[in-house]
Amino acid sequence: MKLWQKNTNLAAAVEKFTVGNDPAFDAMLAPFDVLGSLAHVRMLAQVGLLDSSEAQLIDAALKNIYTQVITPGFALPAGVEDIHSYVERLLTEQLGDAGKKIHSARSRNDQVLVDLKLYLRHEIMELVASVQSLFALLQTQSEKYKNHLLPGYTHLQLAMPSSFGLWFGAYAESLVDDLITLQSAYKVVNKNPLGSAAGYGSSFPISRSVTTVLLGFENLNYNVVYAQMGRGKSERITAMALANIADTLAKMSMDACLYLNQNFDFISFPAELTTGSSIMPHKKNPDVFELIRSHCNRIKALPNEVMLMTTNLPSGYHRDLQLLKEHLFPAFQTLKDCLAMAQLMFESIEVKETILLDEKYKYAFSVEEVNKLVVKGVPFRDAYKQVGMAIENGNFSYSTSLNHTHEGSMGNLCNDKIEKMMQEVLAGFNFAIASNAVAALLND
């Protein structure tokens, strides 16, 4: 029987449709549901709504349930409505009436809200670690290949000299800004909605500040109506942060596909990291980068999906919100997989050293020749015209010697400054507060 059920059985078709794929995603929320319940029980005991001896029994039982639900392969048993009712059922089976008291002063609405926030917080922590790992590799490769030149392009037309130091470093710095947006999502997610009940608060004298500290949240969602309104908003903001990281990976993957093409021939990879053709024995296909590009482009659509699924919903809870999990939850693992595969590929990249010595790239040095005339005192517009006429007349001459010294240029990558920015962003997450609080809940 459902928690909400009275004397009428729900039609089988309605039950099947409304439950949908939710049990699979509820299994992913299971550890966080138990954590939320641990904090809730301790708060109930502190404010006198639960006998201390009962609270101790429930606390111990919840810790055993936590061990069960974090076991690989855990799934909700058939016929169980959701993780919330499953945990309550287990407690009641073990403890009798004491187990039934766990739901005092809360609703499934704020219960799923706190589960989602704890889940999103955990996933953001893991994602940051994956981004940090790729960032470190890109910085290493930037330094390693800082003197390896390649053509830069605008409009996909030959433009000016660049370097692999610049190329790798650009994507490293892009990840810094991506984590700034992810940090913003984390700050939105890391607020406690528990105690908002069905979205209108409770007449019980609960302390929402207690559960905030116990769960390691940075703050409360104070207004109980807004706490409920935050469902959908938290997912949308998080999805946008994921999309920013995905965009960086998709663009870098497209570059890699172009640079591996024989007409570019800038980079190569060991044969075991590329795939072949069933009829063309020479092929070395960049399948990994093509799939990263497509996976990440799909993630870039995620914020719009969440936005449209929540369009025109008034305040309060609506069942539409259930479906957001199906779109958002898998995106975390997909993005982590893409980051790991990008790292595997770029660890083994082979870079061609003499690309710009090929005469077909000579016009990439036209701006260098203009600048040399300007340094000698020729007005820029006149220098531009002189070099342009030389190109038109077929007597353009150039040197491949470069001397770029300003901040962020080939000769002054400022990777140390970019590393400092990344460390400042990472420090701003302050993950230790949440991690220590969860550890204390499980071990005290």
Largest sheet: spatial strand order = 1-2
User: Can you count the beta strands?
Assistant: 6
Helix share bin:
55-70%
CATH fold topology of the largest domain: Fumarase C, Chain A, domain 2
Structural class: mainly alpha
Name of the CATH first level of the largest domain:
Mainly Alpha
What's the story with the biggest beta sheet?
2 strands, antiparallel
Q: What is the global morphology?
A: elongated
SSE string: HHHHHHEEHEHEHEHHHEHHHH
Radius of gyration: 28 Å
Total number of domains: 2
What is the average of the pLDDT values?
A: 93
CATH homologous superfamily assignment of the largest domain = Fumarase/aspartase (Central domain)
Describe it:
The two termini are 34 Å apart. α2 (22-46) packs antiparallel against α3 (52-69) and α6 packs parallel to α9 (224-260). The model has no long low-confidence stretch (mean pLDDT 93). β1 (149-154) and β2 form a beta hairpin. The protein is elongated, with a radius of gyration of 28 Å. The relative contact order is 0.12. It has 2 domains: 12-103, Orthogonal Bundle (Fumarase C, Chain B, domain 1); 108-357 and 414-443, Fumarase/aspartase (Central domain) (Fumarase C, Chain A, domain 2, Up-down Bundle), CATH 1.20.200. The protein is mainly α and 444 residues long. Helix content is 61%, strand content 5%.
